[in-house]
Design brief:
alpha/beta, Collagenase (Catalytic Domain), 4-stranded mixed beta sheet, two-stranded antiparallel ribbon, 11 helices, 6 strands, globular
Length: 274
C-alpha cells in the first residue's frame, strides 16, 4: 500500500474514533429528559424540586451524559430499572454541578445490590500475615472504575436529604477524590493556594473529628469520617450537601472550602427539606 495512502487512512480512523463518540453523546443529550424521569427525581431526590431552574436543567443534562457513558449491572437478583439508573445518576451528578468538567471520566461501571452486601478483602496485619475479612457494606468505590451500591440505602438517603447520611454522595465523593490518582482526601484542585487552604482546613477538622471520636463526643459529622482523610472528605461531603446550615454555622472554614470546590451553596435550596 502506498505509504501516503496508509497515513491518510490512519488519520481518518483517528478522526472518526474521536468524532463518533462525541456525535453519539450529543445525540443522547439532545434527545431530551423524559417526563417520567423528571417524576422519578421529584419523588426520589428530596431536594430536587427546590433546586433553581438552571441547576435542574444542568442536572438533567449531566444525568443523560452519565447514563450514556456508564454501565449499570444488578446483582443478587436485582433487575436494573430506569428508576435505579436515574436516581443514582442524579445523586452522582449533584456533586459536579457548575464544574464544566467531564462526568466521572474514570468511572465505567455501577454495580447495584438490592440491599447491604458482604465484601471480602485481604488485609496485612502488623506481623505481615494476610487475613481475609468480611464486612457488610452499603457501598464501595474502587480505583478501577467501579462503584458498588445497595439500592435500598441509596433510595433512603436520596429521599431523606437532611440527615447527613447519603451512601451515593459518599461513594461518588471517593471517585472525585481519586481523580488525581490517589484517594487521600484531596481531590483535583485549582492552584497551589487552593491545596494549601484545603490541607490546612481539612487536616484541622479531621483532627478535631478524631478527637471527638476518641472521647465519645457528639459531632455534626459521622464519626466514620475519623477513619482516614479519604473517609473524612466523603463524610464531609455528605454533611455539606445535607446539613449545610449546620456546617456553615459550626464549621465555617470547612463549609467555605467545600463550597469553593463544589461550586454550589446547598443552603439556597435546603431550607425546610423534610
Amino acid at each position: 500500500m502506498n505509504p501516503w495512502l496508509f497515513l491518510f487512512l490512519v488519520c481518518v480512523a483517528i478522526v472518526l474514533a474521536l468524532w463518533i463518540p462525541r456525535v453519539r453523546l450529543k445525540r443522547a443529550i439532545n434527545a431530551g429528559f423524559p417526563p417520567a424521569w423528571t417524576a422519578m427525581l421529584e419523588q426520589n431526590i428530596g431536594i430536587y424540586r427546590r433546586l433553581p431552574a438552571n441547576l435542574r436543567e444542568q442536572l438533567q443534562k449531566l444525568v443523560l451524559q452519565f447514563l450514556h457513558e456508564k454501565t449499570f449491572t444488578g446483582v443478587a437478583g436485582l433487575e436494573i430499572t430506569d428508576e435505579i439508573r436515574v436516581t443514582i445518576a442524579a445523586e452522582a451528578c449533584m456533586l459536579i454541578l457548575n464544574r464544566g468538567s467531564d462526568v466521572y471520566p474514570g468511572l465505567r461501571y455501577i454495580i447495584v445490590y438490592p440491599t447491604a452486601f458482604i465484601a471480602r478483602h485481604n488485609h496485612v496485619n502488623e506481623a505481615g500475615v494476610v487475613d481475609l475479612s468480611a464486612h457488610n457494606l452499603l457501598g464501595e468505590s474502587w480505583h478501577n472504575g467501579k462503584v458498588i451500591l445497595a439500592w435500598d440505602s441509596v433510595l433512603q438517603g436520596a429521599r431523606n436529604f437532611s440527615d447527613g447520611q447519603n451512601v451515593a454522595l459518599h461513594e461518588f465523593a471517593h471517585q472525585l477524590d481519586n481523580e488525581n490518582g490517589s484517594a487521600d482526601g484531596a481531590p483535583l484542585l485549582v492552584g497551589a493556594s487552593s491545596y494549601r487552604s484545603w490541607a490546612r482546613v481539612l487536616s484541622g477538622e479531621f483532627a478535631e473529628l478524631q478527637d471527638d471520636t476518641r472521647h465519645g463526643r457528639q459531632s455534626l459529622m459521622n464519626h466514620y469520617g475519623a477513619t482516614n482523610p479519604a473517609e473524612f472528605f466523603a463524610v464531609a461531603t455528605e454533611t455539606f450537601f445535607e446539613k449545610p446550615e449546620q456546617m456553615a454555622g459550626h464549621h465555617a472554614e470547612l463549609f467555605a472550602v467545600l463550597k469553593d470546590y463544589y461550586r454550589v451553596d446547598p443552603r439556597e435550596w435546603s431550607s425546610g427539606v423534610d
